[in-house]
């Protein structure tokens, strides 16, 4: 076998006119199903953190990030990556990395973004490796996070952007996690 | 526009000045002031004809039609000897598009004032609009005689000569004009005039002279590209002409090789002139002919003038081995010189002879284009799978063979790409990097296209589903899936699929239109309307009106058919009539160009527009709407007839109606109905004219372009106002005969009208034309189906039923009819027994054309004449199993039609019908039309797609 080609992708906004393509992409990419509410919200989000990746004229991947308030700050925000997905046939071609880079680069231009975080199913080695390479660290684990897939547990991964502290306790607090990393269930569900 | 000189007759000075001011106000569009001035005159001279007429003209511009006509007519009555009044009357007619009446009025005005330049000019515009070419020539001649110092008069006179085919004179006039010019320079006007003169020389076949003229006028030319194109074209023709002459004179032509070289390099220069010109097939045609000096000048010119789009000379010319090599060399060297020119690589595939070289070329085309991501590859290759009439087939891989070869190559690549991430048998080993994922996608897509073409729709659907799993965000894939469902005979599912494809990209008008069309095919008119409305302007009014304003003929045709299919006759007719109106508008749109083009000297474009407009009603949209409307009218007529007949039967239950009596009854009923309808139409017309007097006519209100509500959405008014259905249908048939004389459906319709009007000679004429004028269609055996002959046998059998007795009568008419029918049946035999002759013809046709639609036509015709004959149903059953060895398999529609005909027309026994249904169901398992009667509980109310 040879090596996978690096694909030259371009980016495009997700709006109400084409959001159904995101639905098709997600249905073929993720084991969980997102509700209509999710697809209604996406077009309203900042295009800096929510984008399609196009190759050969078609959507082959997407990243959906959402700015959230920080529990302990009025000025700072945290950026939550809801989904990042690339169609199976187009994986290992650098598309996910480019989507993540797009988001991180824009995040660094927003001084109010303190950190980026996301959830990864505990057995998803590929994803864990992928985020580790991009500078994310495990800051916690939530048991029973997923309702319909097994294992139901997830890790919380985080990458500081404009964070004025290196204190892990402050980070876990900012993410609403107990300081003990083997914490109990969190209420949030994937959708 | 109206000349005041010598007008304002017998008015005192003050009023005369006022009259002149009306004219001025009219010309400067100050209508209110014009009215005031006219009123001032009329206060003192209430019967002054010219003032009345002018006041009418002003009122016309204020959209007060009724008053306008009233004034102008009163004006005329008061002063019949005034050219102003007649001129104004002409202008009024013109503004309502009654050009013939306008011409009459102008001529009347000219009888009074024969040298009135303004009126002559207005007349000439109408004459060219109405294509009264010789009248136009006369008027232009008169204008030139009166004012020879006006440059436009020279140009227009030359043009008029050209239109009258007096090309020699046209050239002389242009030369006389040019010689009178003191200095000629490279201005647009001189350049265009020179190029125009050159096209006339070419049309006269004087290529040498044309070429010399090009060289001589080179310094004048600003449109350099056109000049180069013309020169390259003339080089193609001249050397051949010269060579032929020299051969005749047995003379050695030394210049031949050099001029061949000149032609070739001229075309290559054009092909390489810009980035896009490498894809210009006009240039490719020129290049091919330059490389093939064996082709005669006449043939070259025919090819250059008639081939369109991506057609190529090599499609129509059989090539020797040596010629193929010559072409290959040319393209190979161009491909190296212009690595981005796809056409240089593609074209050799289209003329390559069957064999390993062709297969290699096809394979590398598949690699190259799927790698680049070309969804249209399959459609491009269809030109090999489905050669058009007149294309060279022998020695080349065409038809099923070519499609199957494509499929085989695609299959191998799909397997290899899946397994190894590389194309199969990659000659370079493929390097270290694997193919991008889209390569697999597009090869699979091509595979689906091949399977679709070969009729294996289930396998095609499976393949397209694989594609969808690979790239589920690609709208094109869902579109293809919908299309496959449609071809499988499931219009409802297809509409669902296309509509859900639409939701993937709500900003894509193309997919929106497709969804609209599919919904209409599935009979979902309301949903289709809603969908089409999504891309109309939201701010104003009715979306249907907006679509009409946009002249969306495809939509009007589709929705018209859907409405007609469910019996909504009025609304359907409205849509077809709207399409007709668009064509009337297209013709009208020329009007402004008659003055503009001569003034701006865009003569070449102008002449080509005139020629285009002459043929415009030959366009498929016009043909289809005319035909569909005529069918609706015939349906209306038949419904009335059977109603009348039912009434008659109630009154005289004992009266037996034989076939021929039925025809007579039909005719009687028709006469009654016509009388009634005429009366009704008279009323309607009176009412309409009453309306018109107050409201501006639809055409006149056009410039306002306001979104009005449609005042007649159900088409009731339209139906009430139209003439008797047979008159309307026969009118449409006449138009089709003029504009689409080589289409079988034209003459079939003419017969269908004659059959109902009982005109035997018209029926015979329609049949002969069906036989003689549709030669092109006859040999266009795309699916092995002889459409004109199928229509012919069907109509021949009806002729026997309707006119059989009449044709046996004494007299010239019957004799002519008999002889003609006998001739159409292949001659020989007993003219006194037409039924027998026709039956023999039907049998011969069924034997000759074993494909389903031919057999259905033959069986229907036979059942009509010999209801007891058993072979009719066997013909259909056999044909259902038959597969043409090299052609595209028949579509589901043919099977649906056949089943309907078996049940309703051929009246086959239930076992036969079911046997056919089962065969069709095996081929089209998804088509509800072929479900067992038990499973189609939901499909009873579904009208099969037409």
From TrEMBL, chain A:
InterPro entries per record: Acyl_CoA_acyltransferase, GNAT_dom, N-term/lysine_N-AcTrnsfr
Source taxon at top rank: Eukaryota
Cellular component terms (Gene Ontology): NatA complex
UniProt record, GO biological process: mitotic sister chromatid cohesion
MF term (GO), any: N-acetyltransferase activity
Gene3D superfamilies, alphabetized: 3.40.630.30
All residue ranges annotated as the N-acetyltransferase domain in the record: 9-162
Keywords noted in UniProt: Acyltransferase, Transferase
Record flagged with keyword S-adenosyl-L-methionine: no
Record bears the keyword Acyltransferase: yes
SUPFAM superfamilies registered for this protein in UniProt: Acyl-CoA N-acyltransferases (Nat)
Name of this protein: N-acetyltransferase domain-containing protein
Native source species: Chrysophaeum taylorii
TrEMBL record, chain B:
Region annotation (Disordered) ranges: 240-260, 645-713
Mapped TPR repeat ranges: 83-116
Bias-annotated ranges (Basic and acidic residues): 681-691
Keyword ATP-binding: no
InterPro entries (UniProt xref): NatA_aux_su, TPR-like_helical_dom_sf, TPR_rpt
Keywords: Repeat, TPR repeat
Keyword Repressor: no
Recorded GO CC terms: cytoplasm
Name of the protein: Uncharacterized protein
Organism name: Chrysophaeum taylorii
Lineage start: Eukaryota, Sar, Stramenopiles, Ochrophyta, Pelagophyceae
């Amino acid at each position: 076998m040879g090596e996978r080609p690096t694909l030259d992708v371009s980016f495009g906004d997700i709006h109400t006119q084409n959001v159904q393509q995101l639905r098709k992409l997600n249905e073929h990419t993720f084991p969980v199903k997102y509700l209509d509410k999710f697809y209604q919200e996406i077009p309203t989000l900042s295009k800096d953190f929510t984008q399609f990746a196009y190759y050969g004229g078609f959507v082959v991947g997407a990243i959906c990030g959402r700015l959230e308030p920080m529990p302990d700050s009025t000025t700072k925000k945290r950026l939550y990556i809801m989904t990042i997905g690339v169609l199976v046939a187009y994986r290992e071609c650098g598309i996910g990395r480019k989507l993540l880079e797009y988001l991180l680069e824009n995040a660094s231009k927003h001084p109010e973004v303190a950190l980026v975080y996301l959830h990864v199913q505990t057995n998803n080695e590929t994803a864990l490796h992928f985020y580790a390479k991009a500078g994310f660290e495990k800051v916690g684990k939530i048991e029973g996070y997923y309702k319909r897939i097994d294992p139901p547990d997830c890790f919380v991964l985080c990458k500081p952007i404009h964070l004025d502290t290196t204190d892990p306790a402050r980070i876990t607090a900012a993410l609403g996690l107990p300081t003990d990393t083997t914490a109990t269930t969190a209420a949030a569900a994937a959708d | 526009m109206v000349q005041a000189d010598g007008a304002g007759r017998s008015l005192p000075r003050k009023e005369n000045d006022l009259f002149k001011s009306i004219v001025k106000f009219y010309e400067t569009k100050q209508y209110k002031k014009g009215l005031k001035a006219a009123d001032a005159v009329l206060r003192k001279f209430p019967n002054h004809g010219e003032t009345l007429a002018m006041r009418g003209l002003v009122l016309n511009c204020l959209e007060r039609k009724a008053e306008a006509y009233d004034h102008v007519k009163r004006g005329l009555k008061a002063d019949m000897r005034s050219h102003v009044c007649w001129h104004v009357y002409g202008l009024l007619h013109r503004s309502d598009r009654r050009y013939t009446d306008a011409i009459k009025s102008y001529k009347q005005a000219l009888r009074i004032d024969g040298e009135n330049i303004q009126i002559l000019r207005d007349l000439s515009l109408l004459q060219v609009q109405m294509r009264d070419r010789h009248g136009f020539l006369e008027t232009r001649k008169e204008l030139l005689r009166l004012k020879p110092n006006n440059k436009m008069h020279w140009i227009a006179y030359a043009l008029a000569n050209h239109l009258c085919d007096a090309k020699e004179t046209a050239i002389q006039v242009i030369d006389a004009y040019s010689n009178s010019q003191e200095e000629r320079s490279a201005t647009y006007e001189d350049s265009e005039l020179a190029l125009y003169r050159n096209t006339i020389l070419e049309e006269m076949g004087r290529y040498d002279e044309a070429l010399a003229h090009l060289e001589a006028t080179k310094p004048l030319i600003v449109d350099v590209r056109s000049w180069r194109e013309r020169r390259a074209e003339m080089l193609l023709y001249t050397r051949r002409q010269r060579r032929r002459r020299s051969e005749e004179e047995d003379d050695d032509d030394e210049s031949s090789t050099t001029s061949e070289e000149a032609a070739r390099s001229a075309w290559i220069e054009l092909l390489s002139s810009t980035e896009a010109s490498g894809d210009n097939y006009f240039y490719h045609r020129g290049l091919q002919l330059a490389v093939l000096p064996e082709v005669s000048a006449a043939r070259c010119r025919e090819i250059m003038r008639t081939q369109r789009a991506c057609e190529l000379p090599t499609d129509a010319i059989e090539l020797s081995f040596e010629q193929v090599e010559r072409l290959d060399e040319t393209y190979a060297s161009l491909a190296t010189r212009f690595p981005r020119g796809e056409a240089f690589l593609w074209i050799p595939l289209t003329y390559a002879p069957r064999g390993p070289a062709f297969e290699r070329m096809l394979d590398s085309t598949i690699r190259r284009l799927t790698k680049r991501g070309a969804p249209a590859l399959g459609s491009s290759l269809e030109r090999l799978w489905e050669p058009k009439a007149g294309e060279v087939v022998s020695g080349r891989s065409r038809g099923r063979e070519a499609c199957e070869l494509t499929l085989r190559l695609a299959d191998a690549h799909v397997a290899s790409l899946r397994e190894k991430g590389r194309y199969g048998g990659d000659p370079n080993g493929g390097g270290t990097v694997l193919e991008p994922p889209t390569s697999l996608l597009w090869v699979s897509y091509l595979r689906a296209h091949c399977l679709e073409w070969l009729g294996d729709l289930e396998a095609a659907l499976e393949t397209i589903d694989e594609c969808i799993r690979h790239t589920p965000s690609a709208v094109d894939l869902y579109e293809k899936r919908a299309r496959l469902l449609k071809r499988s005979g499931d219009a409802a599912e297809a509409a669902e699929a296309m509509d859900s494809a639409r939701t993937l990209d709500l900003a894509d008008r193309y997919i929106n239109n497709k969804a609209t069309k599919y919904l209409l095919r599935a009979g979902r008119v309301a949903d289709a309307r809603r969908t089409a409305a999504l891309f109309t302007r939201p701010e104003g009014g009715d979306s249907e009106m907006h679509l009409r304003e946009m002249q969306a003929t495809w939509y009007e045709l589709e929705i018209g058919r859907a409405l007609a299919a469910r019996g909504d006759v009025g609304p359907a007719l409205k849509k077809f009539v709207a399409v007709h109106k668009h064509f009337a508008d297209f013709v009208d749109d020329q009007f402004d160009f008659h003055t503009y083009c001569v003034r701006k000297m865009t003569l070449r474009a102008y002449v080509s527009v005139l020629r285009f407009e002459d043929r415009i009603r030959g366009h498929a949209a016009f043909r289809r709407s005319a035909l569909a409307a005529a069918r609706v009218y015939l349906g209306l007529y038949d419904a009335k007839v059977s109603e009348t007949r039912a009434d008659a039967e109630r009154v005289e239950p004992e009266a037996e109606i034989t076939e021929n009596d039925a025809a007579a009854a039909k005719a009687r009923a028709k006469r009654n109905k016509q009388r009634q309808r005429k009366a009704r139409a008279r009323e309607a017309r009176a009412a309409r004219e009453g309306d018109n007097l107050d409201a501006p006519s639809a055409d006149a209100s056009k410039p306002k372009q306001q979104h009005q509500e449609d005042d007649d959405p159900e088409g009731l008014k339209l139906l009430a106002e139209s003439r008797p259905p047979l008159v309307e249908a026969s009118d449409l048939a006449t138009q089709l005969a003029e504009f689409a004389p080589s289409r079988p459906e034209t003459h079939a319709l003419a017969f269908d009208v004659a059959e109902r009007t009982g005109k035997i000679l018209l029926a015979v004429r329609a049949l002969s034309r069906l036989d003689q004028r549709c030669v092109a269609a006859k040999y266009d055996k795309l699916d092995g189906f002889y459409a004109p002959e199928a229509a012919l046998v069907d109509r021949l059998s009806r002729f026997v039923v309707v006119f059989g007795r009449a044709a046996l009568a004494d007299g010239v008419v019957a004799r002519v009819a008999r002889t003609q029918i006998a001739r159409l049946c292949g001659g020989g035999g007993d003219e006194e027994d037409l039924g027998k002759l026709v039956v023999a013809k039907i049998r011969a046709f069924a034997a000759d054309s074993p494909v389903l639609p031919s057999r259905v036509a033959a069986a229907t015709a036979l059942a009509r004449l010999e209801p007891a004959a058993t072979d009719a149903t066997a013909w259909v059953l056999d044909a259902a199993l038959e597969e043409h060895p090299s052609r595209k398999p028949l579509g589901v529609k043919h099977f649906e039609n056949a089943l309907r005909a078996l049940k309703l027309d051929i009246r086959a026994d239930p076992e036969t019908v079911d046997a056919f249904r089962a065969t069709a169901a095996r081929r089209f398992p998804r088509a509800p039309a072929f479900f067992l009667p038990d499973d189609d509980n939901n499909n009873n109310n579904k009208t099969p797609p037409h």
